Write the C-alpha coordinates for this entry.
Amino acid sequence: MKRIPLTGLMLILILTGCSKKKYFFEKELTFPRIINSEQKIKLAAYLVPTPQQYEWQRTEMNAFIHFGMNTFTNREWGNGTEAPALFNPTDFDAEQWVRTLKNAGFRMIILTAKHHDGFCLWPTKTTPYSVASSPWRNGEGDVVREVKDACDKYKMKFGIYLSPWDRNAKSYGDSQRYNDLFSKQLTELLSNYGEISEVWLDGARGEEVRGKIQEYDWDAFYKIIDKLQPRAVKAVMGNDVRWVGNEQGFARETEWSVTPLQPNIDPLIIRENEKLGISPIVEDLGSRDLIVKAKKLYWYPTEANVSIRPGWFYHPEEDHRVKTLKQLVDIYFKSVGRNAVLLLNVPPDKRGLLHETDVKRLEQFGNYIATTFNYDKLVNGKIAWTTKQENFKEYDLFDNGTINTVMIQEDIKQGQRVESFRVEALIDNEWKKLADGTTIGYKRLLKFNDMTPSKIRITILETRDVANILNVGAYYAPPPEQFASDQS
Ligand code: FUL
Protein backbone atom coordinates (compact mmCIF):
# COMPACT_ATOMS: atom_id res chain seq x y z
CA MET A 1 0.00 0.00 0.00
CA LYS A 2 1.27 3.45 -0.89
CA ARG A 3 1.76 5.68 2.14
CA ILE A 4 2.81 9.25 1.49
CA PRO A 5 4.90 10.81 4.23
CA LEU A 6 4.13 14.44 4.81
CA THR A 7 7.19 16.45 3.86
CA GLY A 8 7.75 20.09 4.81
CA LEU A 9 7.52 21.07 1.15
CA MET A 10 4.21 19.25 0.64
CA LEU A 11 2.85 20.88 3.75
CA ILE A 12 3.70 24.34 2.48
CA LEU A 13 2.29 23.61 -0.97
CA ILE A 14 -1.01 22.29 0.40
CA LEU A 15 -1.44 24.96 3.03
CA THR A 16 -0.64 27.82 0.71
CA GLY A 17 -2.40 26.32 -2.29
CA CYS A 18 0.65 27.38 -4.32
CA SER A 19 0.98 24.30 -6.45
CA LYS A 20 -0.58 23.22 -9.69
CA LYS A 21 0.05 19.60 -8.75
CA LYS A 22 -2.43 18.22 -6.25
CA TYR A 23 -1.05 16.38 -3.22
CA PHE A 24 -3.11 13.82 -1.36
CA PHE A 25 -2.53 11.41 1.50
CA GLU A 26 -3.72 7.88 0.91
CA LYS A 27 -5.45 6.19 3.85
CA GLU A 28 -3.52 7.85 6.67
CA LEU A 29 -1.93 11.07 7.70
CA THR A 30 0.23 11.93 10.71
CA PHE A 31 0.12 15.58 11.64
CA PRO A 32 3.45 17.36 11.98
CA ARG A 33 4.12 18.64 15.51
CA ILE A 34 4.00 22.34 14.76
CA ILE A 35 0.69 22.91 13.10
CA ASN A 36 -2.29 25.00 14.10
CA SER A 37 -5.94 23.96 14.26
CA GLU A 38 -6.91 25.57 10.99
CA GLN A 39 -4.04 23.86 9.18
CA LYS A 40 -5.10 20.49 10.59
CA ILE A 41 -8.60 20.93 9.16
CA LYS A 42 -7.14 21.87 5.81
CA LEU A 43 -4.91 18.79 5.75
CA ALA A 44 -7.89 16.59 6.68
CA ALA A 45 -9.40 17.63 3.35
CA TYR A 46 -6.49 16.00 1.49
CA LEU A 47 -6.89 12.49 2.90
CA VAL A 48 -8.20 10.06 0.26
CA PRO A 49 -9.18 6.36 -0.02
CA THR A 50 -6.87 3.64 -1.30
CA PRO A 51 -7.94 2.28 -4.72
CA GLN A 52 -9.45 -0.76 -2.99
CA GLN A 53 -11.39 1.38 -0.51
CA TYR A 54 -12.70 3.45 -3.41
CA GLU A 55 -13.69 0.36 -5.38
CA TRP A 56 -15.44 -1.00 -2.28
CA GLN A 57 -17.34 2.26 -1.70
CA ARG A 58 -18.68 2.10 -5.23
CA THR A 59 -20.34 -1.26 -4.55
CA GLU A 60 -22.97 0.63 -2.45
CA MET A 61 -25.04 -2.48 -1.66
CA ASN A 62 -23.64 -5.82 -0.57
CA ALA A 63 -25.19 -8.92 0.92
CA PHE A 64 -24.19 -10.89 4.00
CA ILE A 65 -24.96 -14.59 4.11
CA HIS A 66 -25.12 -16.21 7.54
CA PHE A 67 -25.26 -19.94 6.94
CA GLY A 68 -23.72 -22.78 8.94
CA MET A 69 -24.26 -25.01 11.94
CA ASN A 70 -26.67 -22.52 13.54
CA THR A 71 -28.99 -22.86 10.53
CA PHE A 72 -29.54 -26.50 11.55
CA THR A 73 -29.69 -26.03 15.32
CA ASN A 74 -31.91 -22.94 15.11
CA ARG A 75 -29.47 -20.87 17.15
CA GLU A 76 -27.66 -17.56 16.79
CA TRP A 77 -24.44 -18.58 18.51
CA GLY A 78 -23.40 -22.24 18.64
CA ASN A 79 -21.08 -23.48 21.34
CA GLY A 80 -18.80 -25.52 19.10
CA THR A 81 -19.92 -28.95 20.30
CA GLU A 82 -22.70 -29.47 17.75
CA ALA A 83 -22.23 -32.67 15.74
CA PRO A 84 -21.12 -32.17 12.10
CA ALA A 85 -23.80 -34.75 11.21
CA LEU A 86 -26.39 -32.00 11.76
CA PHE A 87 -25.15 -30.00 8.78
CA ASN A 88 -27.17 -31.37 5.89
CA PRO A 89 -28.96 -28.95 3.55
CA THR A 90 -31.42 -30.87 1.40
CA ASP A 91 -31.60 -28.59 -1.68
CA PHE A 92 -28.45 -26.53 -1.46
CA ASP A 93 -28.33 -24.08 -4.38
CA ALA A 94 -25.79 -21.26 -4.19
CA GLU A 95 -26.88 -20.05 -7.62
CA GLN A 96 -30.34 -19.31 -6.27
CA TRP A 97 -28.79 -17.01 -3.62
CA VAL A 98 -26.50 -15.25 -6.03
CA ARG A 99 -29.07 -14.86 -8.83
CA THR A 100 -31.63 -13.40 -6.42
CA LEU A 101 -29.15 -10.95 -4.93
CA LYS A 102 -27.66 -9.96 -8.27
CA ASN A 103 -31.12 -9.22 -9.70
CA ALA A 104 -31.89 -7.09 -6.64
CA GLY A 105 -28.86 -4.87 -7.30
CA PHE A 106 -26.30 -6.25 -4.84
CA ARG A 107 -22.67 -6.26 -5.92
CA MET A 108 -20.91 -8.53 -3.44
CA ILE A 109 -21.73 -11.50 -1.23
CA ILE A 110 -19.93 -12.03 2.07
CA LEU A 111 -20.27 -15.57 3.38
CA THR A 112 -19.75 -16.77 6.96
CA ALA A 113 -17.02 -19.29 6.14
CA LYS A 114 -16.72 -19.89 9.89
CA HIS A 115 -18.91 -18.46 12.66
CA HIS A 116 -18.17 -18.45 16.41
CA ASP A 117 -18.97 -22.20 16.70
CA GLY A 118 -15.88 -22.94 14.60
CA PHE A 119 -17.65 -25.12 12.01
CA CYS A 120 -15.93 -24.52 8.66
CA LEU A 121 -17.96 -24.37 5.46
CA TRP A 122 -14.97 -25.49 3.41
CA PRO A 123 -12.98 -28.73 3.73
CA THR A 124 -10.13 -27.19 5.68
CA LYS A 125 -6.98 -29.10 6.55
CA THR A 126 -6.84 -27.29 9.91
CA THR A 127 -9.66 -29.12 11.71
CA PRO A 128 -12.02 -32.03 11.17
CA TYR A 129 -14.83 -29.71 12.33
CA SER A 130 -16.03 -28.87 8.82
CA VAL A 131 -18.34 -29.82 5.96
CA ALA A 132 -15.93 -32.69 5.22
CA SER A 133 -17.26 -34.45 8.35
CA SER A 134 -20.89 -33.84 7.46
CA PRO A 135 -23.29 -36.02 5.44
CA TRP A 136 -23.85 -33.18 2.95
CA ARG A 137 -22.61 -34.27 -0.50
CA ASN A 138 -21.16 -37.32 1.32
CA GLY A 139 -18.53 -35.14 2.94
CA GLU A 140 -17.27 -34.03 -0.48
CA GLY A 141 -18.99 -30.64 -0.47
CA ASP A 142 -17.51 -27.15 -0.24
CA VAL A 143 -19.94 -24.28 0.42
CA VAL A 144 -17.26 -21.63 -0.11
CA ARG A 145 -16.39 -23.07 -3.53
CA GLU A 146 -20.00 -23.31 -4.68
CA VAL A 147 -20.83 -19.75 -3.60
CA LYS A 148 -17.66 -18.39 -5.16
CA ASP A 149 -18.35 -20.24 -8.44
CA ALA A 150 -21.88 -18.84 -8.51
CA CYS A 151 -20.50 -15.34 -7.82
CA ASP A 152 -18.08 -15.72 -10.73
CA LYS A 153 -20.91 -16.91 -12.99
CA TYR A 154 -23.11 -13.91 -12.10
CA LYS A 155 -20.20 -11.44 -11.96
CA MET A 156 -20.59 -10.69 -8.28
CA LYS A 157 -17.76 -9.87 -5.92
CA PHE A 158 -17.12 -12.33 -3.11
CA GLY A 159 -16.00 -11.79 0.47
CA ILE A 160 -15.51 -13.94 3.53
CA TYR A 161 -16.44 -13.62 7.18
CA LEU A 162 -14.04 -15.69 9.27
CA SER A 163 -14.80 -15.42 12.98
CA PRO A 164 -11.65 -15.00 15.07
CA TRP A 165 -13.63 -16.23 18.07
CA ASP A 166 -13.76 -20.03 17.75
CA ARG A 167 -15.56 -22.07 20.39
CA ASN A 168 -14.50 -25.41 18.91
CA ALA A 169 -10.75 -25.01 18.44
CA LYS A 170 -8.87 -26.63 21.31
CA SER A 171 -6.05 -24.15 20.91
CA TYR A 172 -8.32 -21.14 21.43
CA GLY A 173 -6.96 -19.22 24.42
CA ASP A 174 -3.46 -20.54 23.78
CA SER A 175 -2.68 -17.41 21.81
CA GLN A 176 0.19 -18.37 19.55
CA ARG A 177 -1.16 -21.82 18.68
CA TYR A 178 -4.62 -20.48 17.87
CA ASN A 179 -3.20 -17.56 15.88
CA ASP A 180 -1.31 -20.11 13.78
CA LEU A 181 -4.51 -22.05 13.15
CA PHE A 182 -6.42 -18.89 12.24
CA SER A 183 -3.58 -17.81 9.93
CA LYS A 184 -3.71 -21.18 8.18
CA GLN A 185 -7.47 -20.89 7.72
CA LEU A 186 -7.08 -17.41 6.27
CA THR A 187 -4.32 -18.69 3.99
CA GLU A 188 -6.49 -21.53 2.68
CA LEU A 189 -9.43 -19.24 1.98
CA LEU A 190 -7.34 -16.51 0.41
CA SER A 191 -5.24 -18.88 -1.74
CA ASN A 192 -7.67 -21.42 -3.12
CA TYR A 193 -10.77 -19.54 -4.23
CA GLY A 194 -9.64 -16.83 -6.63
CA GLU A 195 -10.35 -13.19 -5.94
CA ILE A 196 -11.70 -12.24 -2.50
CA SER A 197 -12.88 -8.63 -2.22
CA GLU A 198 -13.56 -8.24 1.50
CA VAL A 199 -12.43 -9.99 4.68
CA TRP A 200 -14.81 -9.39 7.59
CA LEU A 201 -13.03 -9.77 10.91
CA ASP A 202 -15.62 -9.80 13.66
CA GLY A 203 -14.88 -8.16 16.98
CA ALA A 204 -17.20 -10.43 19.02
CA ARG A 205 -15.41 -12.83 21.33
CA GLY A 206 -15.69 -14.75 24.57
CA GLU A 207 -13.39 -13.21 27.11
CA GLU A 208 -11.88 -16.15 28.85
CA VAL A 209 -11.38 -19.78 27.88
CA ARG A 210 -10.03 -22.25 30.38
CA GLY A 211 -8.77 -19.29 32.41
CA LYS A 212 -6.89 -17.77 29.45
CA ILE A 213 -7.54 -14.79 27.24
CA GLN A 214 -6.87 -15.22 23.54
CA GLU A 215 -4.69 -12.37 22.23
CA TYR A 216 -5.12 -12.12 18.49
CA ASP A 217 -2.14 -11.38 16.26
CA TRP A 218 -3.86 -8.79 14.08
CA ASP A 219 -0.61 -7.73 12.54
CA ALA A 220 0.02 -11.25 11.24
CA PHE A 221 -3.56 -11.57 9.96
CA TYR A 222 -3.33 -8.23 8.14
CA LYS A 223 -0.06 -9.28 6.52
CA ILE A 224 -1.57 -12.50 5.20
CA ILE A 225 -4.56 -10.67 3.73
CA ASP A 226 -2.46 -7.90 2.18
CA LYS A 227 -0.07 -10.43 0.69
CA LEU A 228 -2.56 -12.96 -0.68
CA GLN A 229 -5.40 -10.62 -1.65
CA PRO A 230 -3.93 -7.13 -2.05
CA ARG A 231 -7.17 -5.86 -3.60
CA ALA A 232 -9.35 -6.93 -0.68
CA VAL A 233 -10.55 -4.58 2.04
CA LYS A 234 -10.30 -5.62 5.69
CA ALA A 235 -13.46 -4.79 7.62
CA VAL A 236 -14.56 -4.18 11.23
CA MET A 237 -11.45 -5.35 13.14
CA GLY A 238 -9.72 -4.60 9.84
CA ASN A 239 -8.51 -1.07 9.13
CA ASP A 240 -10.05 -0.42 5.69
CA VAL A 241 -13.78 -0.53 6.48
CA ARG A 242 -15.37 0.65 9.73
CA TRP A 243 -18.34 -0.93 11.53
CA VAL A 244 -21.12 1.69 11.66
CA GLY A 245 -21.76 1.08 15.37
CA ASN A 246 -25.22 -0.51 15.29
CA GLU A 247 -26.89 -3.52 13.70
CA GLN A 248 -29.86 -1.65 12.27
CA GLY A 249 -28.17 -0.56 9.07
CA PHE A 250 -28.27 3.14 10.00
CA ALA A 251 -25.34 5.45 9.36
CA ARG A 252 -25.02 8.82 11.08
CA GLU A 253 -26.56 11.93 9.58
CA THR A 254 -23.07 13.36 9.77
CA GLU A 255 -20.88 10.51 8.53
CA TRP A 256 -17.19 11.26 7.99
CA SER A 257 -14.89 8.83 6.21
CA VAL A 258 -12.04 10.94 7.62
CA THR A 259 -11.61 10.09 11.30
CA PRO A 260 -8.96 9.53 13.97
CA LEU A 261 -10.62 6.18 14.79
CA GLN A 262 -8.85 2.86 14.19
CA PRO A 263 -9.85 -0.62 15.32
CA ASN A 264 -8.48 -1.55 18.77
CA ILE A 265 -5.72 -3.80 17.50
CA ASP A 266 -2.67 -2.69 19.44
CA PRO A 267 -1.91 -0.86 22.71
CA LEU A 268 -0.90 2.40 21.01
CA ILE A 269 -4.13 2.58 19.02
CA ILE A 270 -6.23 1.58 22.03
CA ARG A 271 -4.63 4.37 24.07
CA GLU A 272 -5.20 6.95 21.34
CA ASN A 273 -8.86 5.92 20.86
CA GLU A 274 -9.38 6.12 24.62
CA LYS A 275 -7.68 9.50 24.90
CA LEU A 276 -10.00 10.91 22.23
CA GLY A 277 -13.01 9.10 23.73
CA ILE A 278 -13.86 7.41 20.44
CA SER A 279 -15.08 3.97 19.40
CA PRO A 280 -17.23 2.79 16.47
CA ILE A 281 -20.42 3.56 18.41
CA VAL A 282 -19.89 7.21 19.33
CA GLU A 283 -21.77 9.87 17.39
CA ASP A 284 -18.88 12.19 16.58
CA LEU A 285 -16.08 10.56 14.62
CA GLY A 286 -14.97 13.45 12.45
CA SER A 287 -15.85 16.94 13.70
CA ARG A 288 -13.39 19.83 13.61
CA ASP A 289 -13.05 19.63 17.42
CA LEU A 290 -12.01 16.00 17.22
CA ILE A 291 -9.57 16.55 14.36
CA VAL A 292 -7.89 19.35 16.23
CA LYS A 293 -7.23 16.99 19.17
CA ALA A 294 -5.99 14.09 17.00
CA LYS A 295 -2.40 13.14 16.18
CA LYS A 296 -3.32 11.03 13.15
CA LEU A 297 -6.21 10.74 10.74
CA TYR A 298 -7.37 7.84 8.60
CA TRP A 299 -9.61 7.27 5.64
CA TYR A 300 -11.87 4.75 7.39
CA PRO A 301 -15.27 4.64 5.67
CA THR A 302 -18.28 2.91 7.15
CA GLU A 303 -20.32 -0.18 6.39
CA ALA A 304 -23.86 -0.45 7.78
CA ASN A 305 -24.82 -4.07 8.50
CA VAL A 306 -28.33 -5.29 9.23
CA SER A 307 -30.33 -8.48 8.76
CA ILE A 308 -33.50 -8.77 6.67
CA ARG A 309 -34.85 -10.83 9.60
CA PRO A 310 -34.54 -10.33 13.37
CA GLY A 311 -31.70 -12.89 13.59
CA TRP A 312 -28.51 -13.25 11.56
CA PHE A 313 -29.21 -16.96 10.97
CA TYR A 314 -32.40 -18.47 9.58
CA HIS A 315 -35.16 -19.37 12.06
CA PRO A 316 -38.50 -20.70 10.75
CA GLU A 317 -40.40 -18.80 13.44
CA GLU A 318 -39.16 -15.55 11.89
CA ASP A 319 -40.68 -16.23 8.46
CA HIS A 320 -43.37 -13.65 9.10
CA ARG A 321 -40.89 -11.11 10.46
CA VAL A 322 -38.98 -10.43 7.25
CA LYS A 323 -38.46 -6.66 6.98
CA THR A 324 -41.07 -4.83 4.92
CA LEU A 325 -40.21 -2.94 1.76
CA LYS A 326 -40.79 0.28 3.70
CA GLN A 327 -38.19 -0.75 6.30
CA LEU A 328 -35.67 -1.76 3.64
CA VAL A 329 -36.13 1.52 1.79
CA ASP A 330 -35.65 3.44 5.03
CA ILE A 331 -32.43 1.47 5.63
CA TYR A 332 -31.25 2.26 2.09
CA PHE A 333 -31.76 6.00 2.59
CA LYS A 334 -30.00 5.86 5.97
CA SER A 335 -27.03 3.84 4.76
CA VAL A 336 -26.26 4.31 1.06
CA GLY A 337 -27.85 7.76 1.38
CA ARG A 338 -25.54 8.67 4.27
CA ASN A 339 -22.10 7.92 2.90
CA ALA A 340 -22.08 4.24 3.93
CA VAL A 341 -22.09 0.90 2.14
CA LEU A 342 -25.11 -1.23 3.01
CA LEU A 343 -24.45 -4.83 4.05
CA LEU A 344 -27.82 -6.58 4.15
CA ASN A 345 -27.88 -10.08 5.62
CA VAL A 346 -30.14 -12.67 4.00
CA PRO A 347 -29.87 -16.08 5.70
CA PRO A 348 -30.58 -19.26 3.70
CA ASP A 349 -32.79 -21.88 5.36
CA LYS A 350 -32.21 -25.56 6.18
CA ARG A 351 -32.83 -26.52 2.57
CA GLY A 352 -29.89 -24.32 1.60
CA LEU A 353 -32.19 -21.88 -0.20
CA LEU A 354 -33.24 -18.29 0.39
CA HIS A 355 -36.78 -18.46 1.70
CA GLU A 356 -39.63 -17.50 -0.69
CA THR A 357 -40.62 -14.50 1.46
CA ASP A 358 -37.10 -13.10 1.42
CA VAL A 359 -36.77 -13.70 -2.33
CA LYS A 360 -40.00 -11.82 -2.98
CA ARG A 361 -38.94 -8.94 -0.72
CA LEU A 362 -35.53 -8.65 -2.36
CA GLU A 363 -37.20 -8.54 -5.75
CA GLN A 364 -39.48 -5.71 -4.60
CA PHE A 365 -36.56 -3.87 -3.06
CA GLY A 366 -34.43 -4.17 -6.21
CA ASN A 367 -37.32 -2.97 -8.37
CA TYR A 368 -38.01 -0.08 -6.02
CA ILE A 369 -34.41 1.18 -6.07
CA ALA A 370 -34.14 0.76 -9.85
CA THR A 371 -37.52 2.44 -10.51
CA THR A 372 -36.61 5.37 -8.28
CA PHE A 373 -33.03 6.01 -9.29
CA ASN A 374 -33.02 5.08 -12.96
CA TYR A 375 -34.99 8.20 -13.81
CA ASP A 376 -32.94 11.28 -12.98
CA LYS A 377 -35.01 14.41 -13.49
CA LEU A 378 -32.17 16.91 -13.23
CA VAL A 379 -30.62 18.49 -16.35
CA ASN A 380 -26.80 18.36 -16.45
CA GLY A 381 -26.48 16.88 -12.96
CA LYS A 382 -23.46 14.86 -14.03
CA ILE A 383 -21.34 17.91 -14.81
CA ALA A 384 -18.83 18.19 -11.98
CA TRP A 385 -18.18 21.54 -10.32
CA THR A 386 -15.99 22.98 -7.63
CA THR A 387 -16.80 25.71 -5.20
CA LYS A 388 -15.73 27.54 -2.09
CA GLN A 389 -18.22 28.06 0.70
CA GLU A 390 -21.43 30.04 0.24
CA ASN A 391 -21.41 29.32 -3.48
CA PHE A 392 -24.25 27.62 -5.27
CA LYS A 393 -25.28 26.01 -8.51
CA GLU A 394 -28.71 25.96 -10.11
CA TYR A 395 -30.17 23.13 -12.15
CA ASP A 396 -33.14 22.87 -14.49
CA LEU A 397 -35.48 19.90 -14.31
CA PHE A 398 -36.73 17.81 -17.19
CA ASP A 399 -40.40 18.25 -18.10
CA ASN A 400 -41.37 19.74 -14.74
CA GLY A 401 -41.39 16.32 -13.06
CA THR A 402 -42.46 15.78 -9.48
CA ILE A 403 -39.54 15.02 -7.17
CA ASN A 404 -39.03 14.24 -3.47
CA THR A 405 -35.38 13.18 -3.32
CA VAL A 406 -32.07 14.84 -4.09
CA MET A 407 -28.78 12.96 -4.44
CA ILE A 408 -25.35 14.60 -4.17
CA GLN A 409 -21.90 13.06 -4.53
CA GLU A 410 -18.51 14.48 -3.70
CA ASP A 411 -15.48 13.36 -5.68
CA ILE A 412 -13.95 11.44 -2.77
CA LYS A 413 -10.81 10.75 -4.82
CA GLN A 414 -10.09 14.35 -3.83
CA GLY A 415 -11.15 13.90 -0.22
CA GLN A 416 -14.29 14.42 1.83
CA ARG A 417 -14.76 18.11 2.48
CA VAL A 418 -18.32 19.41 2.66
CA GLU A 419 -19.55 20.16 6.19
CA SER A 420 -22.94 21.62 5.38
CA PHE A 421 -25.11 22.38 2.39
CA ARG A 422 -28.62 23.48 1.48
CA VAL A 423 -31.08 22.33 -1.16
CA GLU A 424 -33.67 24.81 -2.42
CA ALA A 425 -36.35 24.71 -5.09
CA LEU A 426 -37.75 27.43 -7.32
CA ILE A 427 -41.50 27.26 -7.04
CA ASP A 428 -43.73 30.02 -8.44
CA ASN A 429 -40.62 32.14 -8.90
CA GLU A 430 -39.66 31.92 -5.27
CA TRP A 431 -36.75 29.98 -3.74
CA LYS A 432 -37.95 27.67 -0.97
CA LYS A 433 -35.71 25.60 1.30
CA LEU A 434 -36.21 21.87 0.78
CA ALA A 435 -33.59 20.45 3.12
CA ASP A 436 -30.31 21.14 4.90
CA GLY A 437 -27.59 18.54 5.08
CA THR A 438 -24.21 18.22 6.79
CA THR A 439 -21.73 15.76 5.27
CA ILE A 440 -21.97 14.47 1.68
CA GLY A 441 -19.03 12.12 1.01
CA TYR A 442 -19.46 9.41 -1.59
CA LYS A 443 -23.25 9.80 -1.68
CA ARG A 444 -25.93 11.72 0.19
CA LEU A 445 -29.69 11.39 -0.29
CA LEU A 446 -32.15 13.91 1.09
CA LYS A 447 -35.92 13.37 1.16
CA PHE A 448 -38.62 16.05 1.19
CA ASN A 449 -42.30 16.36 0.35
CA ASP A 450 -43.41 15.79 -3.24
CA MET A 451 -43.05 18.94 -5.34
CA THR A 452 -42.74 20.12 -8.90
CA PRO A 453 -40.17 22.92 -8.98
CA SER A 454 -38.81 24.57 -12.12
CA LYS A 455 -35.25 24.65 -10.72
CA ILE A 456 -33.13 23.23 -7.91
CA ARG A 457 -30.32 25.11 -6.15
CA ILE A 458 -27.49 23.49 -4.20
CA THR A 459 -25.52 25.79 -1.91
CA ILE A 460 -22.34 24.64 -0.21
CA LEU A 461 -22.48 26.40 3.16
CA GLU A 462 -19.30 25.13 4.84
CA THR A 463 -16.41 23.15 3.47
CA ARG A 464 -12.88 22.23 4.62
CA ASP A 465 -11.38 23.26 1.30
CA VAL A 466 -12.64 23.70 -2.26
CA ALA A 467 -15.61 21.31 -2.55
CA ASN A 468 -15.55 18.90 -5.50
CA ILE A 469 -19.13 18.10 -6.42
CA LEU A 470 -19.21 15.17 -8.80
CA ASN A 471 -22.85 14.46 -9.40
CA VAL A 472 -26.29 15.76 -8.45
CA GLY A 473 -29.61 14.05 -9.19
CA ALA A 474 -33.30 14.54 -8.42
CA TYR A 475 -35.79 11.69 -8.24
CA TYR A 476 -39.27 10.69 -7.32
CA ALA A 477 -39.33 7.90 -4.72
CA PRO A 478 -42.83 6.37 -4.64
CA PRO A 479 -44.49 5.48 -1.31
CA PRO A 480 -43.09 1.97 -0.55
CA GLU A 481 -46.43 0.59 0.76
CA GLN A 482 -48.13 1.50 -2.50
CA PHE A 483 -45.22 0.15 -4.56
CA ALA A 484 -45.26 -3.16 -2.65
CA SER A 485 -48.98 -3.68 -3.14
CA ASP A 486 -48.77 -2.77 -6.85
CA GLN A 487 -46.11 -5.47 -7.23
CA SER A 488 -47.85 -8.28 -5.39
C1 FUL B 1 -21.68 -10.26 15.46
C2 FUL B 1 -21.85 -11.76 15.69
O1 FUL B 1 -21.76 -12.07 17.05
C3 FUL B 1 -23.21 -12.09 15.12
O2 FUL B 1 -23.54 -13.44 15.31
C4 FUL B 1 -23.23 -11.74 13.64
O3 FUL B 1 -22.30 -12.57 12.94
C5 FUL B 1 -22.91 -10.27 13.46
C6 FUL B 1 -22.82 -9.84 12.01
O4 FUL B 1 -21.68 -9.96 14.07
O5 FUL B 1 -20.55 -9.77 16.06
In short: The chain has a mean pLDDT of 95. The pocket of beta-L-fucopyranose is lined by residues 76, 202, 204, 305, 312 (CB under 6 Å). The chain has two domains: 54-279+296-373, 385-487. The longest helix spans residues 175-192.
